[in-house]
Amino acid sequence: MDRRTLLVGCVALLATPLAAEAQSPARVFRIGVLLPALAPASAPRLDAFRKGLRDLGYVEGQNLAIEWRDAGSRSERLPQVAAELVELQVDVIFATSTPAALAAQQATRRIPIVFATAGDPVGSGLVAGIAAPGGNVTGLSLLAPEIVAKQLQLLKEAVPKASRVAVLSNPALPHTSLMVKETEAAARSLGMWVQLLGVRGADAFDSAFSAVTKGRASALFVLFDPFLFAHLTRIVEFAKENRLPAMYPHREYAEAGGLMAYGADLRDNYRRAATYVHKILTGAKPADLPVEQPTKFELLINLRTAKALGLTIPPLVLARADEIIACPDKADASSGC
Predict the structure, then answer these.
(1) Cα(309)–Cα(106) distance, rounded to whole angstroms?
(2) Of 49, 86, 193, 266, which residue is 20 to 30 A from 281 by alpha carbon distance?
C-alpha cells in the first residue's frame, strides 16, 4: 500500500457522516491539516479533532472543507506539503506536531497555525511565550520533557529488575536533547544504566535494534516523537520478539502490544485544538491565545504482553493504571494469553 492510498483510506475512515442541524452559511471555511505521517493509529486522534469541530457547528460539505497533507514519514517533505496548504490559502493550518508546525511557520507568517502536540513550544521557537505566543502560531503543548522522569519511574516500579535501559529517540526533534537530559537524570536517581540510540530515518532501525541486542538491555524506553510513532508496530514487535519490557509515550503503543504507556491523552489534545481553530475562525488572533498544557494523562498496561514476557506487574502499579488490556476469559494460544 503506497502513502497516497493510505492517506485516502484513513481520511475515508474518518469521514463519517456529520450532523447537519444548522443551515449552511454562505462562507465555507477551509482548514489545512498537516501531518508528518498518516498512520492508521492516527485515525482516532484525527477523528477527535473532527468531532471537536462538529460539536462547534462545523459541517464538512456545508460550512467546512478540510485539506489533508502528510509528509509520508519523510521530514524533508514537510516544507513542500506546508507550502501546498499556503498556496491553497486555507483559513487555518492545523499542524499536528512540532516538526509540522515549524514547517508551516516557515511557510507563512500570515495564516494562523494551531498545533496539538508541541513538546517544547518556546524552546523550539514556535512561540515567544506560553502566555503570549506573539505570532501566528499557538495551540497545545505535550509536556514531553517534564513527564519523562515519571515514565521511567513507572517502568522501574513495574519491572524492578530492569537495570540497563535502551532509550530510543529521534535526534532531529527539537526537544529531544531536553528529553534525553531528563531521562539520564531520572535513570541516575533510579540506579539504571542508559543506552542512548538515535533513529533519524526508517533505514536506521536495524542498526539501533542491533545495538540494543548487543548492549544486553533489560528494558526499552521510547521517547515521544511523531516519526517513531509512525513506526510503532515495528518498535513494539522488536520489543516483543526480544522479550524486552518497554515503556512508551502514548496509548497506541500499548494497544499495539507494548507493555506500558504513559503520557498525555492526545485525543483530548486534538479535540481541544478544534476550539483554537474555532476561536481563530471567529476573529481571535493566535498571538493572543495562550498555549495550553495537557489536562488528561493516562497509564495503560497490557497484561497480555506482561504474561508473554513472564512478568508479574506489582498490584500497586496495576492500581494506578487508567486502563488495563487484559487477557480475555477464553483466549487461544496466538493471543499471548
Answers:
(1) 46
(2) 266
User: Rounded to whole angstroms, how far apart are CA atoms 193 and 198?
Assistant: 17
CA distance 103 to 264: 23
Query: Mind listing the domains of the chain with CATH numbers?
Result: 3-142+265-288 (3.40.50.2300), 144-264+297-335 (3.40.50.2300)
pLDDT at 73: 75
Q: Which residues pair with 114 in a beta bridge?
A: 94, 138
Residue 197 has phi, psi (to 5 degrees) of -135, 120
Residues 6+ apart with CB under 8 A from 155: 162, 165, 219, 221, 245, 246, 247, 260
Q: Which residues pair with 64 in a beta bridge?
A: 29, 60
Note the Cα 72 to chain centre separation in Å. Answer: 15
Helix then strand count (H, E) for the chain reads 13, 12
Confirm if 227 and 250 have CB atoms less than 8 A apart.
Answer: no
Question: What gap in Å lies between CA 270 and CA 197, rounded to an integer?
Answer: 29
Give per-residue burial for 275-288: e unless 16+ CB within 10 Å, then b: bbbbbbbeeeebee
- DSSP annotation of 295 reads -
pLDDT value at residue 246? 98
Q: Return the closest-CA partner of residue 49 out of 107, 93, 100, 102.
A: 93
With a CB cutoff of 8 Å and minimum separation 6, the contacts of 213 are 242
Within the chain, which residues score under 50 in pLDDT?
1-8, 11-25, 332-336
Residue type, 115: F
- Using alpha carbons, list the distances in angstroms from residue 9 to 5, 15, 39, 167, 171: 6, 10, 10, 33, 31
Give the Cβ contact number of residue 214 at 10 Å: 9
In this structure, the number of other CB atoms found within 10 A of the CB of residue 308 comes to: 17
Distance of alpha carbon 318 from alpha carbon 166, whole angstroms = 24
CB 297 within 8 Å of CB 272: no
